Amino acid sequence: MDHQHTHNSNPRDLQMARSMCWHCQSEMSGEYFCDRCVKVQPVSKELDYFTCLGIPRRLTIDQRQLESKFYELSRAFHPDFYQNKSADEQTISLGNSALLNSAYRTLRDPIERAEYLLDLEAGSVKQIRNSPPADLFEEILELQDTLNEYRAAGPASETESTLRAKLQSERNTLEQRQQDMEAALQQLFVQWDALQDRGEATSQARAERDRILKEMREHLSNRTYVKNIVSDLVSTIG
Amino acid sequence: MAYSDKVVDHFNNPRNMGSFKKDEEGVGTGMVGAPECGDVMKLQIKVQNDTIVDAKFKTFGCGSAIASSSLATEWLKGKTIDEAQKIKNTDIVQELNLPPVKIHCSVLAEDAIKAALADYQKKADGALIDAK
User: Which residues of B are catalytic?
Assistant: First the structure.
């Protein structure tokens, strides 16, 4: 998907919403401000977060580069700098900053970054519906029953201590599983980046791409299920 | 945002919570999950002569998900297979007065019904082939 690379000598990294200044109607030639009337210009709402923060669509990223780009753009768009400007300019600053903030928040977290990339690459999450992991579900529901029993058991009773020991060992197992899943995800991230770096357009590369996305989706979903039951466990047995 | 009275009622007094043995005759099991929020739902029906005589559920998730599946089991009981197919998530939304952010819970319940019906059908077809 290279369509966002426009071949002009524009100094701008970000695509703007329009090619003319909203205020003086002159052609936009400056970076994010009109050359003639110095008004701030709205960035395109179509911008994806990776493009917005000037980083390639990869899953292993340079956090420092991400951060410095975010600060650089914040210095241009932050509403604080527009307090004495017109209402229109304030609205634009707010819109640009909002996009910038969600882009930064999403991309700095590896899991959210991966979820976002999946959305971009595979349309909505639902398009890669894999069959639900029935075994994991059974386990979760069973564990929830035990949790209920534990909550109902009298404090300091024998049942309570037996159940607590059981839940504790379940918790250890699940936390180990969580770590394994995260390691597997990490590996998929590396595979994805390597595939993108190679940039091949063969059918083999496409199959590889689909496999990585599908496995990533699977691990991300299962990770959410496990994470939920673990946090329930933790809040119950402490 | 507050839950509607009906949601609170189903949450506090869930109807038909529990499960049947999966391999019991006439039992169909639907197991679904919402990867977005991590909710897990298991819904089971027990069918005799094309009619759902009993239904049970187990849900791990938010109040709306529990209420949606509890309501679904209530509605399923006494319905024929064909009638059960027609239950829509929008019916659940309406009955429970679910806000837009909780609509996906009703979708999950509808998915669970469909999955349970499909599982029953598959088992019934299999039994038919075995009988031949």
Answer: 37, 105
Q: Do A229 and B36 touch (CB under 8 A)?
A: no
Q: What is the domain range of residue B71?
A: 5-126
Q: For chain B, which residues score pLDDT lower than 70? A: 1, 132
Interface test with B, best of A228, A230, A235, A236 (most B CBs within 10 A): A228
Contacts of B77 (CB under 8 A, 6+ apart): B16, B52, B53, B54, B55
Q: Is B96 a member of any domain?
A: yes
Go through B60-80 and write b for each residue having 16 or more CB atoms within 10 A of its CB, e for each that does not.
bbbbbbbbbbbbbbebbbebe
- Within a domain: residue B58? yes
Which residue in B74, B54, B72 sits closest to B114, CA to CA? B72
The secondary structure element, H or E, covering residue A49 is helix A49-52
ipTM above 0.85, yes or no: no
Report the candidate in B85, B67, B91, B79 with the shortest Cα–Cα distance to residue B17.
B67
- B132: in domain: no
**Overall domain count for chain B:** 1
Identify whether B131 is part of a domain: no
Distance CA A34, CA A40 (A): 7
Question: The domain spanning residue B85 has which CATH number?
Answer: 3.90.1010.10
**Contacting residues of B for A144, CB less than 8 Å apart:** 58, 60
Residue ranges of chain B whose CB lies within 8 Å of a chain A CB: 31-33, 35-40, 42, 58, 60
Residues A64-82: pLDDT tens digits? 999 999 999 999 999 999 9
Closest among B71, B82, B19 to B45, alpha carbons compared: B19
Closest CA to A32 of A47, A24, A44: A44
Q: How confident is the model at residue A21 (pLDDT cuts 50, 70, 90)?
A: confident
Side-by-side strand order, sheet with B39-48 = B27-34, B39-48, B51-60
